[in-house]
Structure formats: C-alpha cells, structure tokens
C-alpha cells in the first residue's frame, strides 16, 4: 500500500511538473490581469494622471455613455451567429460523417481556418470585401451589381460582414465536435430505425439530434462566450467603424485603455462584459440541464 501511495505521489508530481510551464503562463498573463482589473474599475487610473479611488463613478459614467450602449447592442447582436453557426456545423458534420472518398481531405480543409490566426484571416477577408476586392470584381463581371458594394464602409453592412467572417472561421471547429458526437452514436440505432421503415430525415430528427443535445449545449455555450467577447476581427477589419457601427464591448474597452489611456474606465467596461457573459452562460447552462444537455446523463 505504501509503495502504491508513493507511486501515485510521484506520478502526480511528474504531471504537475509537465503542467507547470503552461500554468505559469496562465497565472502571469491571464489570472493575474483578471484579478488586478477587478479593483481597477473603482479607480480613476491613468498612466499620465493621478490615481485615486472614485467608487462607482466609472459605472455611473458607463451607464450614461451612448458609445458603450452601441457596443453593448452590437455584442448582443453578435449572438445571432450562434444558431446559424451551430446549424451549419451540424449539416457539414452530417456530410463529413459519410464513408465517401475525400472526406478526410474536406475535414482538413474545413479545419484549416480554425488553426489560422484570426488577424491573418481578417486581413485576407478585408482585401476580399474591399470595393476593389474579389467579391465585387466577380459580381461586377457577372453584371449582378452596377457599382461596388461597400461591405466594410456601409453602416448597415459592416457588422453582418464581420459576423459572416466569424461564422466562416468557426465552422471547422464546431464541425469536428459534432462529428465526434455523431461517431459516438451506435450504428445499431440507425440500422434498427431503417429496418422499421424510417428514412434518413426521421433517423436524424428522432435519434441523432436528441443524442447530440449535450454537444449542441456545449458548442452553443462556448460559441455565445466567443460571440460576446469578439475583438480581433473588429479591430483588424473595421477598427470600430464606419461611424461606430461595429463597436463591440471588448473593442470599446480596448479603445478606452490604449487610445484614451483611461484604464479605470476600461476595467469597469471589462467587469460589465464579464457579468453579461456570466448571465448568458448561466442561462445556457440551466437550459442545457433542463433539456438533458449533459454528457453524463
């Protein structure tokens, strides 16, 4: 027994030794900034000015700030991408789950955007959506439009364009998760349904989709968190424009901190973002539990 305990202790220490570098990076660059930013929201803190405690003044200013509410509205609108992204991912996963030639290649192609830097991806899409870019060139050549579409310079089109880019990049990631879920479903269930006269649609709707609920719940949860916290695509493609139409909470917080040097106000915005994300996450978590969205049930 003593030998077994020593071996367990040794294995535990070895495991922590391997995890130590990653844990150290997380502590320094993730956990410490989060903890440090919590009290910062209650201070008037600037690199060039005097730091003083101001209580809830940053939050009072925030709720009276029109630009913040524009950013808040756009962050909430970004959640629209979640059901679209999940539906498309499930459909692609169903196609990739078939035993056909070339499916492995297509899986790799769909997943490449996931492992590609979002900044690099955004720069490429910025050129594609440019008035002189590929999409406008094709549409003009086919005489589908008479003048270039201002995808990134029209206040009504800029935000939907950014949403489309995030959907494109996220498809491969969620497709792989749903593909794993589909491959975990026993083939005997589908075969029994087919023998009983069920077609492909009934098999999917009555058997596969209910068994995918834990995956749908999990993917929706992390997709909502990512949608509310979107930043890089906005920063790279539109820089909040045109006319603040693509302001989101994360971008507005960044702008207050590094353009205006109002770090206290930026921290207050970050705290509100954390609260909003938590509320949406709790809602989805409760909904998932009620709907049987647990892998362990």
UniProtKB/TrEMBL annotation:
Cite the PROSITE patterns for this sequence. ABC_TM1
**What Pfam family is a match, any one?**
BPD_transp_1
- Compartment(s): Cell membrane
Give the UniProt keywords, A-Z.
Cell membrane, Membrane, Transmembrane, Transmembrane helix, Transport
Topology of this chain in the membrane: Multi-pass membrane protein
Instruction: Check the record and name the InterPro entries matching this protein.
Output: MalF_N (IPR035277), MetI-like (IPR000515), MetI-like_sf (IPR035906), UgpAE/MalFG_permease (IPR050809)
On the tree of life, the source organism's domain of life is: Bacteria
Gene Ontology biological process: transmembrane transport
Report if keyword Transport is assigned.
yes
Q: Where are the transmembrane segments?
A: 12-35, 77-96, 108-128, 160-180, 215-235, 263-287
- Which Gene3D superfamilies does the UniProt entry name for this protein? MalF N-terminal region-like (1.20.58.370), MetI-like (1.10.3720.10)
- What GO cellular-component annotations does this UniProt entry give? plasma membrane
Q: Look up keyword Transport and say if it applies.
A: yes
Q: Which family does it belong to?
A: Belongs to the binding-protein-dependent transport system permease family.
Xref: PANTHER family: BLL4140 PROTEIN
Question: What is the name of this protein?
Answer: Sugar ABC transporter permease
Q: What species is this protein from?
A: Ruminiclostridium cellobioparum subsp. termitidis CT1112
């Amino acid at each position: 027994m003593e030998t077994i305990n020593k071996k367990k202790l040794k294995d535990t220490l070895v495991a922590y030794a391997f995890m130590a570098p990653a844990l150290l990076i997380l502590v320094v660059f993730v956990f410490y900034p989060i903890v440090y930013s919590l009290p910062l929201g209650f201070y008037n803190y600037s690199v060039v000015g005097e730091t003083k405690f101001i209580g809830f003044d940053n939050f009072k200013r925030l709720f009276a700030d029109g630009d913040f509410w524009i950013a808040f509205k756009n962050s909430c609108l970004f959640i629209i991408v979640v059901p679209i992204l999940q539906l498309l991912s499930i459909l692609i996963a169903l196609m990739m789950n078939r035993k056909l030639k070339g499916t492995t290649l297509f899986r790799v192609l769909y997943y490449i955007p996931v492992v590609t830097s979002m900044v690099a991806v955004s720069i490429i899409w910025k050129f594609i959506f440019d008035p002189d870019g590929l999409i406008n060139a094709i549409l003009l050549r086919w005489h589908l439009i008479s003048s270039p579409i201002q995808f990134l310079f029209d206040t009504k089109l800029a935000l939907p364009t950014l949403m489309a880019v995030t959907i494109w990049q996220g498809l491969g990631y969620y497709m792989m998760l749903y593909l794993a879920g589909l491959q975990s479903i026993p083939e005997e269930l589908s075969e029994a349904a087919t023998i009983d006269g069920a077609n492909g649609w009934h098999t999917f709707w009555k058997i596969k989709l209910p068994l995918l609920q834990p995956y749908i719940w999990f993917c929706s949860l992390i997709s909502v968190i990512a949608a509310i916290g979107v930043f890089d695509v906005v920063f790279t493609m539109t820089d909040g424009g045109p006319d603040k139409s693509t302001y989101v909470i994360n971008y507005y917080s960044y702008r207050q901190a590094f353009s205006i040097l109002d770090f206290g106000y930026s921290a207050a915005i970050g705290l509100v973002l954390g609260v909003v994300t938590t509320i949406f996450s709790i809602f989805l978590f409760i909904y998932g539990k009620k709907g049987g969205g647990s892998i362990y049930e």
